[in-house]
Design goal:
Blueprint: E1 3-6, H1 13-22, E2 31-34, H2 45-54, E3 59-61, H3 65-74, H4 87-90, H5 95-103, E4 108-110, E5 116-119, H6 129-145, H7 147-153, H8 168-180, E6 184-185, E7 191-192, E8 206-207, E9 219-222, E10 237-239, E11 249-254, E12 259-264
Parallel strand pairs: 1-2, 2-3, 5-9, 9-10
Antiparallel strand pairs: 1-11, 4-5, 6-7, 6-8, 11-12
Helix pairs in contact: 6-7, 6-8
Length: 266
């Protein structure tokens, strides 16, 4: 039995199948964890979603910013761009079923023994892992039952700090931003959401994971940040977005073997 944590697939169904062949994935005994952004910009988001959904309990997934943006567009709160290549998904005969499946995915997945935690972008410096999971669960509950309430307030960069969130809606937005959009923070821990480069380019900002060097945490797995090319300098924090959709590679990390595997992307 092996558990593989996989970075941003973003509709690169062919690369995902090559990666699973490379690791000799056995659906009867192995499990796949997906770090979010299953769809958008790659050539086959529909096939990717159908495949991951078909894995049932063998796949654990968290929502990424592209997944949420697609859902918001489905409910009429945004529009997707042509280069997201989501037309086939939007016209899929099983679209309603796929949307319902996505709405039931969490923002954070934590193993039963709390030794591993997966999130798309990162964990806020203001949270403990348990506080992060509780905040994410509040958003997930709304997505399951009243998704329009989430999408109506989802877009925006404020509040930048959890302690400044005064309403339930502000807490939802902050949680979504931290879990699915965050890369950098200001030195006081406030989210800085517009910058996308590598840490070496932005010395005035702090990568979110640096705040966790001295804080107790489980093994953390995240995607979202292709500019890191899979590198995190903090022990037990694993960056897994290696830019598959940009023609680089798709990466999986085996928890039991503590080993990475990669195949070429598009």
């Amino acid at each position: 039995m092996a558990t593989y944590v996989i970075g941003d697939v973003q509709g690169c169904y062919g690369a995902l199948q090559r990666l699973l062949a490379h690791i000799n994935f056995n659906p009867s005994s192995d499990q796949l964890w997906f770090c979010g952004d299953l769809i958008a910009r790659g050539p086959d988001s529909l096939a990717t979603l159908n495949f991951v959904k078909s894995l049932g309990s063998k796949a654990k997934c968290v929502l990424g910013n592209h997944d949420l943006h697609f859902l918001a567009s489905h409910f009429g709160f945004s529009t997707v761009k042509p280069n997201d290549k989501l037309q086939c998904l939007q016209q899929a005969p099983n679209l309603r079923e796929l949307v319902d499946w996505l709405l039931h995915l969490p923002l954070i997945y934590q193993s039963a023994d709390k030794q591993q935690l997966m999130v798309h972008a990162g964990l806020s410096p203001e949270w403990t892992p348990d506080e992060a999971e509780a905040a994410a669960a509040a958003v997930s509950e709304q997505l399951k039952h009243q998704p329009e309430q989430i999408f109506a307030i989802m877009y925006g960069d404020s509040p930048a700090m959890w302690q400044h969130a005064e309403t339930e809606q502000q807490r939802w937005r902050y949680t979504i931003n931290a879990c699915t959009r965050m890369r950098f923070c200001t030195p006081d821990g406030a989210l800085s959401l517009q910058e996308k480069g590598s840490p070496s380019q932005l010395n005035n900002l702090v990568p979110w994971y640096e705040f966790w060097r001295t804080k107790p945490h489980p093994q953390l797995f995240f995607g979202h940040w292709a500019a890191l090319n899979g590198y995190s300098p903090v022990q037990d924090i694993h960056a897994l977005d290696t830019g598959c959709v940009w023609g680089n590679s798709l990466t999986a990390y085996c928890i039991e073997r503590q080993q990475r595997y990669s195949v070429a992307g598009i």
